[in-house]
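From the thread on structure requests for the teaching lab: each student submitted one protein with a one-line request. Submission from student K.M.:

"Model Acetyl-coenzyme A synthetase from Undibacterium aquatile, tokens only."
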Amino acid sequence: MSDLNTAQNSASDVKAESRIFPPPAAFAANATISGMDAYHAMCKEAETDYEGFWAKLARENLHWHKPFETVLDETDAPFYKWFEDGLMNVSYNCLDVNLQKGNGDKVAVIFEADGGEVTKVTYKELHHKVCQFANGLKSLGITKGDRVVIYMPMSVEGVVAMQACARIGATHSVVFGGFSAKSLHERIVDVGAVAVITADEQVRGGKHLPLKVIVDEALTLGDCEKVKNVVIYKRTGGAINLTAGRDLWMNDLVANQSAVCEPEWVSAEHPLFILYTSGSTGKPKGVQHSSGGYLLWAILTMKWTFDIKPSDVFWCTADIGWVTGHTYITYGPLAVGATEIVFEGIPTFPNAGRFWDMVEKHKATIFYTAPTAIRSLIKAADADANVHPAKFDLSSLRLLGSVGEPINPEAWMWYYNNIGRGNCPIVDTFWQTETGGHMMTPLPGATPLVPGSCTLPLPGIMSAIVDETGHDLPNGQGGILVVKRPWPAMIRTIWGDPERFKKGYFPEEFGGKIYLAGDGAIRNKDTGYFTITGRIDDVLNVSGHRMGTMEIESALVAHPLVAEAAVVGKPDDTTGEAICAFVVLKRSRPIGDEAKQIATELRNWVAKEIGPIAKPKEIRFGDNLPKTRSGKIMRRLLRVLAKGETITQDVSTLENPAILDQLKEAQ
Ligand code: PRX
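Reply posted by the TA:
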């Protein structure tokens, strides 16, 4: 929480924004939540009868095999339980329910591969695939409660694998395909996986990248005895090795399986998935989510935030390796019977017009992406008129969304004018891996928009801003973002580490029952709108990807040449934040070409230890790091140096002020 001052400072930059964009009248007229009165009425309902509010929504929006009687159980707070005695199945709610509603022949997924090939899958076909694969998993002996790691490219098969796990009550843990063998291994071991589902290779920007080879390497790193099988989806046909008795092709596994698979009815509290994310310590944490409460929120946010209608073509550009891909690709859109686009590849291949070309081709109506992607496409459009959105027919769009990091007002305005053509509301959705779904966001048919603000909490979400003693702060004063009541989609625990869950998210200093989001925020004096001012812990947000500074530091010091390392974030025009590492070697400080060469070696080392997303953009070498006389690294100063600014702070407590000059030079 030491960074609260930083948060307050940056808040002063954003609170000056005064442009307001009311929802277009035609949008508001047909919206699920139409007008601010409707929004306030729902908030009131939640405040008046909190459990009644959620119980009604859970009964109306989910299929229950056995209805729940208890709504919220707070006896073991902060280990809250929602709808626990109700029995349900997530995959049944996403697929079978749609068949019953007559959506069988509706397209569920429009998949576009890296090379542009398009595959369309109806709800009936998806149901068929999921049931066959679920039976295949069962034939391997995988049952309810087992954990399965999924390390797959963006594909229909990736969605099928997740849904199939849900169908049989196995808990999945998806690992993003950009993580290294070591990161994958760490997750396989921590979660205690009995199987890994992967592909031979993945394709990104025309390049074939290994997946199975990395799984093989991960499984040689020890403690993986629980893994009995590796199931491989053939994406490219690239050469791989098969270990007899352990490895099998997905196609062979499903070949003779029945397309009927009775779902495993599980308690609403049954863990649907565990997703690893970065925290302030070196070890990633396995965020455990529920089945019933989680799916309820995926459905409600699809309806409220995205105003989803049967005619929509919804496109979330995230990867299934992140929470956005879980909630707004695999579960939310399917549970509301939408047609969704799933894409493989990158926004800049075959050129930076890919997104706009796909919107035009598939007539996307709702488009949801990250500010980093928008910022890089602005640059590309400025540089090349052929990929400028003006070249494309984007008239199908009616709603835009942003996720994962703050969107700067300039990028917001470009998105609004050039992609939405001034007709599409933008929902700037603030949430986290831990929250399961959106927490604060404009409602497109109700909330007047302010660029750079996630505006107000959704009905039922009790967000507030408090000081370091947990007391409410008035509007206009920056502080710590908290949520005062539990909500159905919240994190249930950290897999295998309930103490870390309690201490990290529900600290005693705040009474032990208030969820601490990890971000700073400020509310506008007049509108009460929230603006997120950034993380208040040692977590960085690079291109919308969460990275722990300690994770990167641990990777660096594992290199034989490195004695000490400190990592800080540095503002970056495209990626939001960039990783800047200050490194002390076991030998003398390198300079010139040698420094450059060692910096490259260290970058590649980090890519191998964690994954390419963790590569420091800048590395600076010093004979030491700036430390207080008691030996504490002064990160505050490193942040200033990383920004290239002059240090104006008091450095009198510094043991070694001369070191600061050395650390100005980036490699
Ligand atoms: O700092 C906030 C930022 O991303 C963090 C959560 O990262 P992760 O768990 O990876 O989930 C990303 C996808 C939901 C938050 O603590 N963040 C997320 N959305 C926004 C945001 N910051 C500002 N505005 C947002 N809309």
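TA comment: The chain has 20 helices and 30 strands. The first helix runs from residue 4 to 14.
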